[in-house]
């Protein structure tokens, strides 16, 4: 394959009758497998009329785009499929095959409601409460939050405690976190909770040095300070690891992990499920 073809722009169109997040995630996961390829991603969301759909499809045709769609309306989904077949465009119906199979197994018809995943239902408001909890108990503001939390994150500065807390809150999990500083007071509540819900975050010294220097530069400050000093960082990490072993908690090194990967490892280690999309109601 010649270099010109290797560097050809790949265009993907997301067409959805709602926010398009489901199809976008699939597209992004696929794109990540080709870090050297240049992509152009178009999103056509809240497409709920034939006129809007035809405009989106013709736009995709003009760009020779791949089309990934989530259209719950059978008529619109059929139009999209027939258009792509006739124009020889790659297409993937990400929603209806699974919806149809669920209906076949459950002996029910789907509601056909657009954006049903994003209902402002009880589950949604639980997620909002979990996010409020993460903000309230961020950075050890109130150690009493440890007693109510589903997960307690510990770590030295710049181990992604706050982003992880908010990401996990989006999965309806209540998360509190505590920054660790050598010789600092450790709240008694930390020793009163089940260590199986505590996660100690650590990092490689070299990675931490780089992150902290960049942090200082972002504030317009001198990066060569005690905050990024190698000996100080190694002392912080030793203090943290000694505490983790004393608590008997799970330890995760985040040096090479994304927020999503770290969150997945935390949920697996603590045997927790993503509760953000549960629709099953308990019987009283």
Description:
The chain is α/β, with parallel strands linked by helices. The protein has helices at about 5, 20-30, 50-60, 75-85, 95-105, 120-135, 145-150, 160-170, 205-220, 230-245, 260-270, and strands at about 10-15, 40-45, 65-70, 90-95, 150-155, 175-180, 200, 250-255. Strand 1 (about 10-15), helix 2 and strand 2 (about 40-45) form a beta-alpha-beta unit. Helix 9 (about 205-220) packs across helix 10 (about 230-245). Mean pLDDT is about 90; it is low at about 280-284.
Briefly characterize the structure.
This protein is of the alpha/beta class and 284 residues long. Helix content is 44%, strand content 14%. The model is unreliable at 279-284 (pLDDT under 50).
Secondary-structure map:
Layout: H1 3-6, E1 10-16, H2 21-31, E2 39-44, H3 50-62, E3 66-70, H4 74-87, E4 91-93, H5 96-106, H6 122-136, H7 145-148, E5 151-155, H8 161-169, E6 175-179, E7 198-202, H9 205-218, H10 230-247, E8 250-253, H11 259-269
Parallel strand pairs: 1-2, 1-3, 3-4, 5-6, 5-7, 7-8
Helix pairs in contact: 3-4, 6-8, 8-11, 9-10
Q: Report the biggest beta sheet as strand number plus sense, adding barrel if it closes.
A: 4 strands, parallel
End-to-end separation in angstroms reads: 63 Å
Low-confidence stretches are: 279-284
Quaternary form: single chain
- Number of helices in the DSSP assignment: 11
């Amino acid at each position: 394959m010649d270099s010109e073809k290797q560097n050809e722009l790949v265009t993907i169109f997301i067409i959805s009758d709602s926010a398009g997040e489901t199809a976008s995630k699939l597209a992004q996961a696929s794109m990540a497998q080709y870090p050297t390829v240049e992509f152009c991603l178009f999103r056509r969301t809240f497409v709920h009329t034939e006129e809007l759909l035809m405009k989106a499809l013709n736009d995709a045709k003009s760009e020779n785009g791949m089309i990934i769609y989530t259209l719950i309306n059978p008529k619109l989904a059929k139009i999209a499929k027939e258009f792509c077949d006739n124009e020889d465009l790659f297409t993937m119906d990400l929603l209806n095959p699974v919806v149809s199979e669920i209906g076949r197994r459950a002996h029910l018809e789907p509601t056909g409601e657009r954006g049903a995943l994003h209902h402002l239902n009880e589950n949604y408001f639980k997620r909002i409460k979990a996010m409020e909890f993460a903000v309230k108990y961020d950075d050890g503001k109130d150690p009493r939050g440890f007693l109510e939390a589903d997960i307690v994150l510990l770590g030295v500065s710049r181990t992604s405690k706050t982003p992880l807390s908010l990401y996990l809150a989006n999965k309806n999990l209540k998360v509190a976190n505590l920054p660790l500083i050598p010789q600092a007071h450790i709240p008694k509540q930390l020793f009163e909770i089940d260590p199986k819900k505590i996660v100690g975050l650590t990092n490689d010294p070299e990675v931490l040095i780089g992150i902290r220097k960049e942090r200082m530069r972002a504030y317009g400050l001198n990066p060569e300070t005690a905050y990024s000093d190698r000996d100080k960082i190694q002392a912080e990490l030793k203090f943290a690891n000694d505490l983790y072993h004393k608590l008997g908690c799970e330890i995760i090194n985040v040096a090479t992990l994304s927020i999503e990967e770290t969150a997945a490892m935390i949920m697996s280690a603590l045997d927790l499920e993503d509760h953000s999309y549960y629709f099953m109601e308990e019987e009283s």
